[in-house]
């Protein structure tokens, strides 16, 4: 498993506004989308491509095309849905599958309540979108599920990660072909397993308080 913390002033600035408790949902959604586009630029460095011959108005030349099957993008509902548009803007030909997962706030166990993915992911490159990597339980389950379906490698794009969650994932997925691309590795988890300084509950800030 590899971890890449993206160090860029544009990322740091947008993240600062996102963290601010006074930032309203519409601005939060817009900034999330913009941040994902910046992170996706780094996260797609290893996307599989092949040469393709094309004709410009001047001559024939060899360019680059995504190798088929194209990457699969998997937002983890709810909060990951806020990252989808930013990703598909950059990789418009990607297919999209969905995982609905929620962390039980008492036991911190991640449960899967919805799944809409291709049955066979053999050889597929998969990009998972989830803004928060706290204990790491949600991403661990998601990644294991994708490998069980045959994915060749999984890249998770997150806004914030806690060191505790990264360590937990590292100890379970050390040898796995997993990359975590994150805007900031924060200080720690608090007693409720929220990321500190963090940005609060990403799903609630994007979409309002869940019932
Ligand atoms: O690393 P973990 O400790 O598992 O926590 C992280 C998870 O918690 C949040 O989702 P949540 O369960 O709040 O669902 P939501 O997106 O519907 O709000 C977040 O979007 C991650 O999926
Ligand atoms: O800080 C946190 C931790 C888990 N889920 C969130 O949305 N935020
Ligand atoms: Mg939530």
Automatic annotation (TrEMBL):
Gene Ontology molecular function terms on file: uracil phosphoribosyltransferase activity
Binding site for uracil: 195, 200-202
Known catalytic reactions: UMP + diphosphate = 5-phospho-alpha-D-ribose 1-diphosphate + uracil
Cofactor entry: Mg(2+)
Pfam families, A to Z: UPRTase
Enzyme class, broadest EC rank: transferase
Cofactor remark: Binds 1 Mg(2+) ion per subunit. The magnesium is bound as Mg-PRPP.
Residues given in the record as 5-phospho-alpha-D-ribose 1-diphosphate binding sites: 78, 103, 130-138, 201
Pathway where this protein functions: Pyrimidine metabolism; UMP biosynthesis via salvage pathway; UMP from uracil: step 1/1
NCBIfam families, alphabetized: PRK00129.1, upp
Name of the protein in question: Uracil phosphoribosyltransferase
Gene from which this protein is expressed: upp
């Amino acid at each position: 498993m590899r971890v890449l913390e993206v160090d860029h002033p544009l990322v740091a600035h947008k993240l600062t506004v996102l963290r601010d408790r006074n930032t309203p949902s519409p601005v939060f959604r817009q900034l999330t989308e913009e941040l994902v586009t910046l992170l996706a630029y780094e996260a797609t460095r290893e996307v599989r491509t092949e040469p393709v011959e094309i004709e410009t108005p001047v001559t024939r030349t060899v360019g680059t095309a995504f190798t088929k099957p194209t990457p699969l993008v998997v937002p983890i509902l709810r909060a990951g849905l806020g990252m989808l548009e930013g990703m598909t803007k950059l990789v418009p030909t990607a297919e999209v599958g969905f995982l609905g997962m929620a962390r039980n706030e008492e036991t911190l166990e991640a449960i899967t309540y919805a799944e809409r993915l291709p049955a066979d992911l053999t050889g597929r490159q998969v990009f998972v979108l989830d803004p928060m990597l706290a204990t790491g339980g949600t991403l661990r389950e998601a990644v294991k599920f994708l490998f069980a379906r045959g994915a060749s490698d999984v890249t998770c794009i997150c806004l914030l990660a806690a060191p505790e969650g990264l360590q937990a994932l590292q100890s379970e997925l050390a040898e796995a072909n997993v990359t975590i691309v994150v805007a900031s590795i924060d200080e720690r988890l608090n007693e409720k397993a929220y990321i500190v300084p963090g940005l609060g509950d990403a799903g609630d800030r994007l979409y309002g308080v869940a019932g």
